[in-house]
Request: fold
Amino acid sequence: MNKQFSKKAKGFTITEILVALAIVAIMSTVIAVNFLGKTEEAKFTRVKGDLTNLQSALMSYYNDNGFFPTTDQGLSALVSKPTQEPVPNNYQRGGYISGGGVANDPWGKPYQYISPGIENDYDLFSMGADGRTGGEGKFQDISVWNMNAINFNVEN
Reply:
């Protein structure tokens, strides 16, 4: 058996491999940035939906009972009938939220509820990605009163 080897090497050069790796790294970065931006955008969209549903449940509670739950009663008053004053007389059987409880915001923090609110009958909001009041971009607070006017710019 006599094997003949060609003097011309087969395969890729180190330069070709490095160029290919650089292209893959750049593409991965672009995809990751776009994906992460969409993920944050989806979180803001979920907050808006959650706040709309909670606002609807609060309005149903108010229409049945003539008042909103107090801050101390909190959003849990939408799940089970409060026992502390003011106790609702016309509480809807099964509560005002299905699913067994009030979900946390997409960042794992409870939605904030204050009644009476600062400028409205109640304030209902998420403190955003940082879990603190204030902030801009993905760290801004999102409330039922500003969610339609808020700029969901998640780049910062």
Remarks:
- Residues 14-65 form the longest helix (52 residues).
